[in-house]
Amino acid sequence: MRTLLTLTSLLILVTGSLPAASNLLPNGSFEGSLSYWIPRNTPVELIQGDAPHGSWFLRRTADKGFIHSAPLLIEPGTTITVAMWARCEKGSGTMALTVHPTPRQAGMPPWAIGRGSSGGGKNPRPWNNPTLTTEWQRVSITMTMPDYRKEKQEFPAPWWWSYNTWWLFFEAKNVGHIDIDGVTIVTGEQDPGFVPYTSIETAVHLTDLPPYNPTGALLNQGDTVTALAALHNPGTEARTATLRWTLRDYAGDKIFDQAEQSITLAAGGTELIEHKQVLTAKGTLLVTAQIIDPQGNELGRSHAPATTMPNPFAATEPDPRERFGGTLVAGDNLNSHHVDIGQQMGMRWTRWYPHMNWKDFQPKGPDDWQSERTDAILADLRQHGFSVNVVLYARPDWAFSKDDKIHTLPSDMQWTADDPRWNDLSVETHWDRYVKRMLTTYAGPSFAWEIINEPQFDRWPSNELHFLFVKRTAALIKSIDPAVKVMINSVNGFDGISKDFSRRGGGEFIDVFTWHNYSPNGAGSAETIRQMELAFRRADGTGPENWFNEGWTWFPSSRASVTNGMIATRSPEQVAHMVVRNQAELATAGMDKMILFNMAYQRHGRSWWDWAGDGTELWDDHNEPTIAVPVFNVLAKHIGLAQSLSAIRHQDAWIHTFHDLRNNRGVAIIWGTTDGELLLPVSGLQAEDVMGNADPIAHPADGSLLPLRENRPVYVFKDGLSGAELDAALAPLQRAAMAGGDGEYTIPRDWMEREAKGNPYVHNDKPLWAFGRIYPPDRADADAYIVQRQFVPTRNHWSDIEHTQGGFPSGKVDQEGHVSIAAGAPWGGAQKDKPACLLFYAPTAGTYRIEASAFMNRWEGKGAGHLRLVLLNSEQGEVQELAHWDLPQRKPVAITAEAIELRANQRLALVYHLDGMFSAGSVRFDGLRIERK
C-alpha cells in the first residue's frame, strides 16, 4: 500500500479568535524565540515586523538549506495537516516540505515523506509542492503517515527507531531567503489557521551559555545564567497570570530555587522577560518558566537546560587502572578542546583518537612512516592524563593484493592454515615489521594493543586463519614486551568469530577481550559478562580482562521538546538512571573498562544515526551537554578508579559495592525494585543522586534509612569506611538464591554458576530442578524426558550434544531468577521436533501448586507455541497431561495449576513446543513458584 499525499495551497485570513484545534508543534509562531527549532548548518534568524501572525517570523537567510523543527510525536497511520504562511525573496520558486524520521538512517528513502523525486530511493514520492512568491500566502499539506506495522516491506527502518518521532524540513532553492510564520500541525484534513501548542505560547532559552568552543556549554556550580522567556498570547483578550521561575534537577523533581512575578499579556501580544538564575546545584539543571492563571491552571511551560560539572577533574599522569573513556573526536586533527572536556569529565581512555593503525602510519609503502600528527596528539593526551587503546590492523593498498580487495591477509602472508610460518617469528613480514616498530616507538603501560577492530566484518578466508593471524601477532607483541595488554575485539556483544576464537583456546594468549554494542537499553548484562568470562577461561582458571570499547545507547537532549529524537519513551532522566544501573551491574559482574563511542565529531551532536534530539554522542544537536556528561562525571568520581566487590540482591533493592581507590572509601550504588525504604546496617552514611547532589538519608540508631525509588540509583558512602567493611556490613541483606524450604520452591538464581555440575540442580543432596528435553520427541513416553547434558560456555546455557538445531533445545537462568527454555519445530528430514522442558523433582510426597507468568518470544517461523504441564510416571512410562496453555507472541500468560499430587522424587514438567516447521522460540517464566500445601 502506498501512502496518499495530497496538497492544497490557499490564502487564509488571520482571525482574532483561537481555533479549537491543537497544534502538535510548540513555538510555530516564532514570537521572540527560536526555541524548538534546531540550528543545524543553515543560518536562520528572527525578524520583527511585517509578520502575518504576531510580530515575528523566521527567515532562512541563505539561498539554500533546510529549516529544521525539533522532534515531534506523530503515531503511524495518523492523518495530519501541516500549514504555514510562507514567501520568498525573489521571483517565484517551489517549496519542499518534508516530514522526516528523526534518525538519519531511518530517514533514507523511501521514508522521507514529501521530499519528491529528488529524494531518490526505490519508491520516490513526487508531488506538487507549493509555489512561493514574494507575498505572504498560506500553504497547507495534508498527508497520512505510513503505518510501519502494515507496510514494513515498503518502509523498512532500523530497529532503534520507535517509528513515531518525526521532524519537519523546509527548503526552497534559488529563491533567495525564505520566510515562514504561523506553522501549525494538526490532526485531520484541515487548516484552522495558526493555533498555539498551549494557551500561552511559552519558550525559554538561555542567552549567555558559553559556546561549544572552548567549554562545550559547561558551567560551574554558583554561576549565573540569564533565561529569556518569550510569552505569546494568541487570544483576543488580555491575560493576567503568574510567571513562576524554578530551578529544578535533571528529572524536574527537586526544586533548588523559585521566584514568581505577575504578568499581563495583551491580546495578540508578546512579552520577553529576563530572569537571572544562580546555578546552586550540580549536573543537568532545568531553568523552567511556568505560566499559571489566577485559578491555578497551567497555561504554558518551557525549560532550558544548564549543566554544571559536578566534580571537575584536573590533569594527572595516565593511570591505566581508570575505568572510563571515549572516542574523543572523530578525525585525526589535533583538537585539544575535546581532550580538555574529556579530562574534566574524568574520562581517562581514548580510542580512535588518534588513529594509530597500519594504513595511517605507512600509507605509501614499507619505507614510509608518518607519525608527526599522531605524536602531537599523543603528547597532548598524555598531558591530560589519557591512556590510549590502539587499534593496529588496517589495509594499506600497497601491502595487499590488488586482485582481491577484500582479502584480509597481506600479500606476503598468504599462508594456508597448516603453514609452519604461523608459528615461526623468525620469518618477518611487512605486518611484523610494522607491529615491532609500533611497540618499540610507543611503549609503556598507558597503551593497550587491540589487534583488529570488528573482525566479524572483515571477511576472513576462514575463522581458523583469523585465529592464526591474531595468535601470531599476540606472540610477536609479547616477544617485544611481555607486560603489555594484547586485545581482541567483538561486534554487537559476543559475535560468531569471537566465539570461534574462544573455542580454539584464544583466552590463553590474550590479555583483554573487548566488545561493542549499540542498544537503546543497557550495553549488556551480568549474563553477557559471565558468558564471555566462561568462554575465555584459561586452563588455570584465570581469564582475560573484559572491556567495552565502542558504542552504547542514545542520550536524549534535555531541551524542552515534544518528544526525544528517536525513542519517544526514553526521557533523559530514565536514560541517566539506566546508565548508572547498567555500569554498576557490568562492573560488579567483571567488566573492567567502559570506553564510549563517540563523544563528539567535529561538531557536537552529530553521530552515525541521529539527526535530531538524542544521539550516541554526549552533546546534543544544540551543542549542549546531554545528561550523559554529568552522569559519567559522577560515575568517574565514585567508581572510575575502584575495585568492584559484589552485587547484593535484596528483595526490595539492588546493591552493588565497590572500594573507591580515588577517595579511599567504600561506595554502594543502590536502587529500589519498588518505591519504599531500606535500612542499611551502617551508621552515618551519606547519599548522592546521579548528578552528585545530596540525597535524603535518615540516621536512626540502628543504621541509615535510605528512601528507595524504583530503578532510580543513588550513591551511598562514608568517609573512612573501606569497601571491604561496607560490603561485609551489607552482605546480610542478600536474599537467598532460592526459596527451598517449608514447602516453597523457586528458581535458583545461582543455577548457572554451578556450570558443568549444575544440571540437574541439586538441593539437600537431591535433584530439585533440571533443564530437559524430549528425545526421541515422543511427548507420551515418560522415558523420553531426559536431562540436557551439555553446559555451553559461549552461550551460557544448557543444551545437548546431539540432535540439536541452532543450539536448541536449551535452558538458562538470568540473575533475576527468570528461567528460559528454547525449543524448535521440525526442520524436515532427520531434523525432528525439539521440545524443551523444565523439570521439577518433588522433594517429598504431597499436594502441590504451581504459578508463573509465561512469555514467549518466537524468533523464527509462524507456528503457534504451546506450554503443557505434565506429570511423569517413569515406572509405568506414562505421561499425564494436567494443563495446556496456548502462548501468544510476546504477551504474558498467567500459569496456575492446583491440587497436583506428587510422590517423593516424582517429576513434574513444563513442556514448550511449537507447531509447523521451521519455527523456533523461547519461553521465559517470571515468578515461577511451586508450593506444597
In short:
The chain is mostly beta strands and 933 residues long. It has eleven helices and 51 strands.
3D structure, described in words:
The chain is mainly β and 933 residues long. 12% of the residues lie in helices and 35% in strands. The chain contains eleven helices and 51 strands. The strands form ten sheets. It has an eight-stranded parallel sheet. Strands 36, 37, 43, 44, 46, 49 and 51 form a seven-stranded antiparallel sheet that branches. Strands 38, 39, 40, 45, 47, 48 and 50 form a seven-stranded antiparallel sheet that branches. Strand 43 (810-813) and strand 44 form a beta hairpin. The chain is globular. It starts with a strand and ends with a strand. The model is unreliable at 1-19 and 114-127 (pLDDT under 50).
Topology:
Layout: E1 5-9, E2 37-38, E3 44-48, E4 56-60, E5 67-69, E6 72-73, E7 79-88, E8 93-101, E9 131-132, E10 137-144, E11 165-172, E12 178-187, E13 201-206, H1 212-215, E14 218-219, E15 224-232, E16 239-248, E17 255-265, E18 270-278, E19 283-292, E20 298-308, E21 324-326, H2 336-345, E22 349-351, H3 358-361, H4 372-383, E23 387-391, H5 430-441, E24 447-450, H6 463-480, E25 485-490, H7 496-503, E26 512-518, H8 526-535, E27 545-552, H9 572-589, E28 591-596, H10 628-639, E29 642-649, E30 653-660, E31 665-672, E32 676-680, E33 686-688, E34 704-708, E35 714-717, H11 723-730, E36 740-741, E37 744-746, E38 761-763, E39 766-774, E40 785-787, E41 790-792, E42 797-799, E43 810-813, E44 819-824, E45 836-841, E46 846-860, E47 865-873, E48 878-887, E49 893-902, E50 907-914, E51 920-932
Parallel strand pairs: 14-20, 21-28, 22-23, 23-24, 24-25, 25-26, 26-27, 27-28
Antiparallel strand pairs: 1-10, 2-5, 3-4, 4-12, 5-11, 6-11, 7-10, 7-12, 8-9, 8-11, 13-15, 15-18, 16-17, 16-19, 19-20, 29-30, 30-31, 31-35, 32-34, 33-35, 36-37, 37-51, 38-39, 39-40, 39-45, 41-42, 43-44, 44-51, 45-50, 46-49, 46-51, 47-48, 47-50
